[in-house]
Design brief:
heterodimer; A: mainly alpha; 7 helices; about 0% strand; B: alpha+beta; L,D-transpeptidase catalytic domain-like; eight-stranded mixed beta sheet; 8 strands; rod-shaped
């Protein structure tokens, strides 16, 4: 090959190297953003809040790196590309694990919901057996109203489950269960006082 | 020639490797990253949102400057300014830790107090509901407040003060709803003018008993007592039950309230659904007047009459009636023997401002 051709080839290759580092990685940016958006939409902030925060921070850092290179004459996006690829991979890994965490939270909420329903039913059964008269009519009416209030609260649990707010659903269901048990205990005591069998 | 090309390639490679090499991060960067994450874990974004946002912005600026420095050729890099920036960020973060700790302690104290207040108020209102039949109407809201209280307490124990605060706020809303049912009823028994009016009725009735040598009956709703006066002197007292809304003054049919006023026995029923019964002349003229006024004000449901058939009957003092006054069977048996058609019956809420219902309003 001629000497001049070789020299030109060398400089062209060097130039290509520099240009190759110099194009904004738009595709990588979009891919990373989409991956993060997708995992946030799946509920990452609810079920894996720390992982979601780290992901958002990583994406911000990667986009900052891109901005810095944008402002330079001799751009080199290789670091930014590396960071964006990592964001995308982390987002996809989180998305894979998320359904398991979501399912666990859902199952806990449903179990708590069932337990609270059972506790209310127990209180209602006891109320049906509760004695009339002998100083208890007003108490019974009051406890009937208590049970109605608990049933109202149970509807809120269902609404939270439907909205996939499983933590809130579990918390409320546990409160209802505790209160329903208290009402059952009060009825049992009232029945024992007047000599009525609770079984 | 080949030697020249090799040299050029070597120089390009050297420039490339040193120009695009792995950046050296000052140790303060890692410390700052850990600090930022720890602040987040402790809830800085929740309890100190503005200072935390400022801190994050400063952290981000420092990091951008780090990236800027990293992107320079290694011969032109200097991390002195960047390191200084990160040191400032760490110092800011340390101040934020102290502030966050203080904020959370203050909030913990405040929320803890609110939980105690909420619990006490719930207990007090529950006690009120036990004093009147209408109490059951407030229980639904009270129990919702109790459930929220339990949630608030759990959040507090888990140091989630924001959530605890939200639950407490919702709990107080339910308490307000319960109070809006209970307080108007109780307040009547603390109303000086109302109590004086009742007291005069009773005094006039006892005077009538004395002057005309008559047996008269006085029903005191707040104390749930029926008192028999003979010749103006107390003869006997019996415990009684009232309507489901018995603490209120009867206004119309179906309101299940026990009327207040001066009445007379119009009929004696020796055989009744409730053992024995004494029918009184509700509605009297005063009741009709009140009904008309209420109707004009729109306080009476459409096509609802004033009602009637108010009795003093047996069946047990613990039943909740549709407005009648209920007694134990042996008590109505005794009463039946001594009263007659025309016997005055005065029904009042209370005869003293210090009565069972008004005294329960203390501290509320």
């Amino acid at each position: 090959m001629k000497k001049s051709t070789m020299i030109v080839l060398v400089f062209v290759m060097a130039g290509l190297l520099l240009i190759g580092c110099g194009k904004q990685p738009t595709e990588d940016m979009n891919a990373a953003k989409s991956a993060v958006d997708a995992v946030i939409a799946e509920g990452a902030e609810k079920y894996a809040p720390e992982d979601a925060k780290k992901l958002n921070d990583e994406l911000t850092a990667a986009l900052d790196e891109v901005k810095i290179q944008d402002s330079k004459t001799m751009k080199n996006y290789s670091k930014a590309q590396e960071m964006l690829a990592e964001v995308k991979a982390d987002a996809e890994a989180l998305k894979t694990n998320l359904p398991v965490k979501k399912e666990e939270a859902r199952n806990n909420a449903l179990a708590a919901h069932e337990a609270s329903k059972t506790a209310i039913e127990e209180a209602k059964k006891l109320l049906a057996k509760a004695p009339r008269g002998k100083g208890s009519m007003a108490d019974i009416e009051a406890m009937k109203a208590d049970v109605k209030g608990l049933e109202d609260s149970l509807l809120e649990v269902q609404a939270a489950v439907d909205a996939e707010d499983y933590a809130a659903a579990s918390e409320k269901a546990k409160g209802i269960q505790e209160k329903a048990a208290e009402v059952s205990s009060q009825i049992t005591q009232a029945m024992k006082k007047v000599g009525v069998k609770t079984q | 020639m080949i030697q020249i090309i090799k040299r050029i390639f070597f120089v390009c490679a050297l420039i490339y490797l040193t120009g695009c090499g792995v950046p050296q991060i000052p140790p303060e960067v890692k410390l700052a990253e850990e600090q930022e994450l720890n602040l987040w874990r402790l809830g800085a974004q929740v309890y100190l949102p503005i200072p935390y946002a400022q801190y994050r912005e400063n952290f981000r600026k420092a990091r951008k400057n780090l990236f800027r420095e990293n992107s320079k050729f290694v011969w032109f890099r200097s991390y002195k300014a960047v390191r200084s920036e990160f040191i400032n960020v760490i110092q800011e973060g340390n101040r934020l830790f102290v502030q966050l700790e203080q904020t959370k302690q203050d909030l913990s104290r405040h929320v803890g107090n609110e939980i105690v207040v909420l619990q006490e108020r719930i207990d007090k209102l529950k006690e009120l509901t036990g004093k009147i039949n209408e109490g059951r109407l407030a229980r639904r809201d009270l129990v919702k407040a109790e459930v929220l209280f339990l949630e608030a307490r759990k959040c507090y124990e888990e140091n989630d003060f924001k959530k605890a605060g939200e639950r407490i706020y919702m709990g107080f809303n339910h308490l307000a709803a319960a109070e809006s049912i209970l307080f108007p009823i109780f307040n009547r028994y603390a109303d000086k003018n109302q109590v004086m009016k009742w007291k005069h009725w009773v005094e006039d009735t006892i005077t009538e008993s004395k002057e005309h040598n008559r047996i008269v009956l006085v029903v005191n709703k707040s104390e749930r007592l029926l008192t028999v006066y003979k010749k103006g002197l107390l003869y006997k007292t019996y415990p009684v039950g009232l309507g489901q809304s018995g603490s209120q003054d009867k206004l119309h049919a179906g309101d299940r309230a026990t009327p207040e006023g001066r009445y007379r026995i119009t009929k004696k029923l020796p055989k009744s659904k409730y053992h024995k019964a004494l029918l009184i002349n509700y509605p009297n003229d005063d009741d009709r007047r009140q009904f008309q006024i209420a109707k004009e004000k729109g306080l009476v449901p459409h096509q609802t009459s004033i009602g009637g058939l108010i009795e003093i009957h047996g069946g047990g003092k613990d039943i909740m009636t549709y407005g009648c006054i209920a007694m134990n069977n042996r008590d109505i048996d005794e009463l039946f023997k001594i009263v007659k058609v025309g016997t005055p019956v005065t029904i009042v809420g209370a005869v003293s401002l210090q009565n069972s219902l008004s005294s329960n309003l203390k501290g509320l």
